[in-house]
Every structure is written in C-alpha cells, then in structure tokens.
Please model this.
Amino acid sequence: METWYYVDSGHLKPAINMALDEALMNWHREGKIPPVLRFYGWEPAGLSVGYFQRVKGKIDLEGVKRHGFELVRRQTGGRAVLHDKELTYSVIVSEDHEAMPASVKEAYLVISKGLLEGFRNLGLPAEFAIPEGKLETNDSAVCFEEPSWYELIVDGKKAAGSAQTRKKGIILQHGSIPIDVDDVKLFDMFIYKNERIKERARRAFGDKAIAINQLLDNPVDYNVTKEAFKEGFEKGLNIHLEPFELSEEQWEEVNQIAEQRYKTEEWNFSR
Model:
C-alpha cells in the first residue's frame, strides 16, 4: 500500500486555496513530496470560475460582492462553482504514476473511486455518471447543472463536481462536495436576462443537483464529512494517508503565488 501525504488545510481564502494547490503540484514535480490528498474549505466563501470561462456578461460581480464572497479563477477548466458549505478535495499525482491512465477521462474514474467510497461511508448510494452528450449543448455558466464523465450522482442528481488539469507531468484534480446548498445565493452570482429566467433556472437546478444533507435524515457537518471521505480515498485508491504540515517557508511560497497570480485582476478577470 502506497503512502500519500494528507493535507488538512482547514478554511482558507479563495486565492490561498488555489495557490496551495499550485504549490503542491510544484513540490510533487520537484520530488519534494509524494502524491497528495488535500481537504479544505473556504473563508470567505468563494466563486471559482474555470480557466477558460468568461466573466464579463456571465458572472454578476455585484452579486458576488453583495454576499461577501470572493471570485478566483482556477487552473482547471469547467464552469463556475460556489464554494460555501462544502468539503473541497484536491488530488496531486504524477502522470507517470502506475495507477494513473493516460486518458483524462479514465484518470477521473480512478480518482473518483475515492469519492464513491466516501459517499458510501455516509450511507449514500452514489454511482458514476455516464453522460449522453448533454454537455456539448449546455451554455450555462453554472457548474452542477450537468454531470461530466464519472462524476458522482445520487438519485440521478449530481452530488460532487470535479475538474482536472495536467501541467508539466503533474495531474491536479480538485472538486466540490456540497454539504448544504443555498441556491438563492448561488443564482445571485450569475447574469440572466431577467428575474423570471433566473427563477426558472434556479428551480430547474433543484432537479439536477443535490447536497449531502438533502439526502440524510441526520445532517452531518464538515468534520464528519471530511473523515468519511478520508477513509473513502484510502479505500478507493488503496493508499495510506500520512498527515503533512507545511513549514513556514512553504507557506511563504504559497502566499507569494497567491499575490502574483490568484489575487490579481489580470488573472481573475482576463476573460
């Protein structure tokens, strides 16, 4: 059984969260650390937009500010995600790892086995999504409206959203596992032609996505969810997780990445 590092970084600002993912990729590429599983939350809540996603005309920046949230652009593609009452995960592993397929889609399947086991630990009958071409025609800016390949669904609704990128030989897959969802706040983050269309989209969203506590008779919190998915990843990926604490110097490097990239308007509003 292989040992991976386990980073439990708690609730951090959106720019720091994205910078820490990037730093972990760098350190793994440099051979300083083994593969990593990281769990984290967001304080304040953040709206992350995909690497290629347009902000202008799609995201309601006044809505983001009004709720006290912060916008940040991810390294990964996909559509916007509101990170609020959720557990967020990151997996950092080399493309050359013997368990990682060359195909992005098949690597999703391998990594998402950890998510599948996490949901099962909470007593939820999750399964992998096998979409039928819906994504190609959906112009929505909102993530969670359609599942991608091998994302997790429960009762036919998307229960976790993930995105993956590969840079200089390293895979980063990170994703959102909603514990609770406030769809009124969520849809205040996006631009619609009028309130009627926004309300219609919000109601339709409830038929497509679901949070953990909407499925359970006894609600769980962040820590219970975290432990369920930690055990899930150990089982699903057949790994042992060893806790890893960043040094002061490593945190300085993370903060530098945040200042140079994830806190800048050039990065966040470039599209």
In short: The chain has one domain: 2-268.
